[in-house]
Amino acid sequence: MQAARMSGRRQLVTTAAFIAVGGLVLTGCSSGEETSSDPTNNSVEGNQAEGDTVVIGFSGPAADHGWLGAINSAALAEAEKLPDVELRVAEGTNDANLQISQVEQFINEGVDAIVLLPTDGAALTAVATQAMEAGIPVINVDREFSSPFAARATVLGDNYGMGVSAGTYICEQVGDQPDAVVAEIAGIDSLPLTQDRSAGFKDALEGCGLEVNNRVAADFTVQGGEAATSQLLAAAPKIDAVWNHDDDQGIGVLAAIDSAGRDEFIMVGGAGSANAMREIQSGEGVLKATIIYPSTQAADGIRLARLVVQDKAMSDLVEIEVPNRIVLNAPVVTSENVEKYLPTAFES
């Protein structure tokens, strides 16, 4: 009987707490004559409602490989879906000085927002800060600025997380072999994103007692991947697992592996290209997995720029403003889940 009374008391306390919290939520979302059923700036209806036209300037690097091409095309496609967005696209460039002039042009034109995937985050920090000081919110994509004052919001892939995902998968596959030989084919070593990927990989491998035994760096191109892998294979007569940071350069990596006639190891890719996923799906080669690095980042930036300018927020969050930092997930794609990710993958 006492247990029943205690149970009832807990239920009353829980119900009261729920009512109190519910009252706070309704109060926090209300203003003026608005009722709890009215659309708010972070409701689905309020988020999607067409508002005043938002002019967005978009600048990114030259689309010299598949992932960057997918970044650009996804941004354009997303803008086309939004009737209240006017997108002005600067020509893709790998010249930081030219990109600085593009942003300066956007500032002079008085655009409402700028979505910027910088060729070099540090080099573009000053002009991005200039835009922010002019009252133009900047959405920083993929490569971070060196100052928090240079962007209203930042959308990033999880580079460290990519390394962790790759290392964790390799631990699952060969971690029971204490003498397993692990190789790494990185991208451009001078880039912070490459350094983050390598750091995450190293940390994950330590969890199962492994380490990187052989490492080379390429340049995110097919030619660079093939040359670096040929060098790696010549230096390492035995390998148990390889992580290649980038599926675009992975085309060259796989070509070098094929030329060398090596198949004693498993390989993990990076970024999540469609051709890598089809290779995984076939089950015929050394490539067994790839780690997603989303090519939706600039498209996400377009959506966030619209929300910021229209004073809206993300409909799946209680928060009434757009977050200032969003880090996307880095899942592992294998033969078991490849069909889920293949439809949205980019072509290398």
From TrEMBL:
Keywords assigned by UniProt, alphabetized: Signal
Domain Periplasmic binding protein: 56-312
Protein name: Substrate-binding domain-containing protein
InterPro entries according to UniProt: Peripla_BP_I, SBP_2_dom
Source taxon at top rank: Bacteria
Organism: Arthrobacter gallicola
A UniProt-annotated Pfam family: Peripla_BP_4
Family of the protein in this entry: Belongs to the bacterial solute-binding protein 2 family.
Localization, UniProt: Cell envelope
